[in-house]
């Protein structure tokens, strides 16, 4: 899990990445490749 200021670049790393909001935090998740996980903040 990376913690980044901006998720825009992390979203472009893989075409299966999705941006989701959970509990007020913004996450990038990827079901096909769980390595590409990130949180904003």
Descriptive overview:
- By secondary structure, the protein is mainly β.
- It has one domain.
- 10% of the residues lie in helices and 39% in strands.
- It has one helix and four strands, in the order βαβββ.
- The protein has a four-stranded mixed beta sheet, with no helix packed on it.
- Strand 2 and strand 3 form a beta hairpin.
- The longest helix has 4 residues.
- The mean pLDDT is 93.
Radius of gyration from the CA trace?
9 Å
Number of helices: 1
The count of strands amounts to: 4
Straight-line N-to-C gap? 12 Å
Beta-strand content estimate: 35-45%
Q: Percent helix among the residues?
A: under 10%
**Class per helix and strand makeup:** mainly beta
Shape summary: globular
Determine the mean pLDDT: 93
- Count of folded domains: 1
Largest beta-sheet characterization: 4 strands, mixed
Essential attributes:
4 strands; 41 residues; 1 helix; four-stranded mixed β-sheet; mainly beta
SSE blueprint and pairings:
Blueprint: E1 2-4, H1 8-11, E2 18-22, E3 25-29, E4 38-40
Parallel strand pairs: 1-4
Antiparallel strand pairs: 2-3, 3-4
């Amino acid at each position: 899990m990376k913690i980044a200021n901006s998720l825009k670049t992390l979203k472009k790393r893989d075409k299966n990445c999705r941006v989701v909001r959970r509990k007020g935090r913004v996450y990038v998740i990827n079901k096909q490749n769980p390595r590409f996980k990130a949180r904003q903040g």
